[in-house]
Amino acid sequence: MMGQGPQKPGEHQLKRAWVFLKPLVGRYAWRLVFGFLCLAVVDLLQLWIPRVMKHAVDGVSTGEDSGWLAVRVAQIVVLALIIAVLRYFWRYFLLGFSRLLEKDIRRTMLAHVLTLDRTALHGRSPGDILALSGNDLASVQLAAGMGLVAFVDAIFMSLAALAFMAALHGTLTAVAVAPLPFLALATRSLSGRLHARFVKVQEKFSELTECARTTLTSIRLFKAYNQEESQTARFDALGRAYVHHNLRAAIVEGTLFPFAGLVSNASVLLVLYFGGLLTMHQALTAGDFVAFMAYLHLLTWPMMAFGWVANLFQRGLTSLQRIQELLADRAALEDPPRPVRLPTAPFTLQLHGCTFAYPAMETPALQDCSVTLTPGITGLVGPTGAGKSTLCAILTRLYPVPRGAYTVNGCDVNDLGIADLRSLMAYVPQEGVLFSDTVAANIAFGKPDATLEEIQAVARAAVIHDEIVAMASGYETRLGEKGVRLSGGQRQRIALARALLLDRPILIIDDALSAVDTETEQRILKELAKRCQGKTCLIISHRIAQLADAHRLLVMDNGRIVDSGSHHDLLQRNPFYRTIHQHQTRMSCAR
Ligand SMILES: Nc1ncnc2c1ncn2[C@@H]1O[C@H](COP(=O)(O)OP(=O)(O)OP(=O)(O)O)[C@@H](O)[C@H]1O
């Protein structure tokens, strides 16, 4: 479940971030070693240049010849060339490291989200998860890339520059660093505020992403309801809120960065004045003074960088905390420590007075529900909202159930491995979900090594083969967002073919033929009757007449099974069943 929201990063959060990052950093340690080695050499060479300049200036003042000066210039050119090459390498190693880290965290996030069940995902919108893997991960990458580089560089460069400056004149160095404590104080006091504002920025980005996702996935609906303008206005309002919170963060950021510049300029001013006086009184040579100023110039970047790095780390830590909260979400369903062996076919599934409420819902969707599904076809009917899809979700083990509430061949499902139990089942949900892939790949989703013959056989059973063959590229036709759009009935039949290909001993079909015409549905049900011999099959349908040949029929209402029997029995005694049947018969006669 979602946590309390990221807290201000203290020592505990830093430790938590490090525990998470340590193995990932260890994986690419050699990159870091080579990268920082190149960076250190670049810094040392940069620090060497002022020394060459000092000799050049002192040489000029003591009347050395032009050939001697040319040698100094050539030395600086060679140093600059080496610096350029090594800069390429540190970028390659260190920025490459941050990209690899980003890839690994993204992979960990996706793998983790796939382990979560519906209960764990209830508090998060897809937009929230997309924002974590987009904006938040980008902040972490920036902190681990440029942030880390700038931090190490700033420390190394400032210490080395200070050492070189101290070697030239100790007191002048002390004067130059006098304004630095102000920078440290400002960074410390502003970083807490910055953190709180970044948290808000990332939350707003999640909302914006979710709004964009819903808009893009439901464009037709918005058009049909003439909601384009109001949805654009909603998106605009969220966009404005996002900008507003970004600006609030920018106010703090915008204070820190110029303040660092101000501190460094104060140092330059102090050195210019006191260094100038020392040179005038010949306590410092002109060359020393030029070199000192050059070192101070090299120190300016690290001072500015501390403010910038503080921002990057703040953002990175805030985002990493948000990502870690997702990674801390745990599935409510857990495998038993020692799963018992799966029972063997044929299978009898039983719910024993099972009560189930969706997270955060007060009224249970299943109320003391008892049902027994034996081998053969069981038909399930019931008014809308009766709990039929919830029953499917429980049977396919998408939600946890208490001990003793659900057994398979007498064995409590809490003692069975979740994946083991699901490997016995093929499930066709109400909405025919298709992926952006070929028809063949969509059908072979659960069995990627299926032959074309196997795929065609199940497509024939789902009465969709002829329509697939008539498509431009047959089974190789691409479907989904970037491919062919199919009708609701075609989608449902491809989804059914996908489940049939698995050929599993338990088949659950949740009103998955609702968009198929009655004649085609009848043909499909005949095929199913042939294929389901010896299997335990539950078919939910709103069309009662289609289920008349099922071995047993169940009627569900208010979260429980309220009647069961043959078509004939139910017609005799169940008023709901009789009314619906009469209504549907009249409708089909009228047609
Ligand atoms: N994910 C969910 N979160 C909260 N409540 C839900 C959720 N899914 C269903 N419900 C509620 O549970 C009850 C049973 O819903 P369910 O979808 O199981 O009914 P159904 O019989 O399949 O309906 P239909 O025939 O319309 O598909 C309804 O009151 C519904 O509002």
From TrEMBL:
Keywords: ATP-binding, Cell membrane, Membrane, Nucleotide-binding, Transmembrane, Transmembrane helix, Transport. The chain crosses the membrane at residues 28-49, 69-90, 142-166, 172-190, 256-277, 289-313. InterPro entries: AAA+_ATPase, ABC1_TM_dom, ABC1_TM_sf, ABC_transporter-like_ATP-bd, ABC_transporter-like_CS, P-loop_NTPase, Type_1_exporter. One of its GO terms (molecular function) is ATP hydrolysis activity. Residues 349-583 form the ABC transporter domain. SMART domains: AAA. Pfam families: ABC_membrane, ABC_tran. It comes from the Bacteria. It is a multi-pass membrane protein. GO terms for cellular component: plasma membrane. CDD domains: ABC_6TM_TmrB_like. Residues 33-315 form the ABC transmembrane type-1 domain. Gene3D superfamilies: ABC transporter type 1, transmembrane domain, P-loop containing nucleotide triphosphate hydrolases. It is found in: Cell membrane. This is ATP-binding cassette subfamily B protein. It comes from Desulfosoma caldarium.
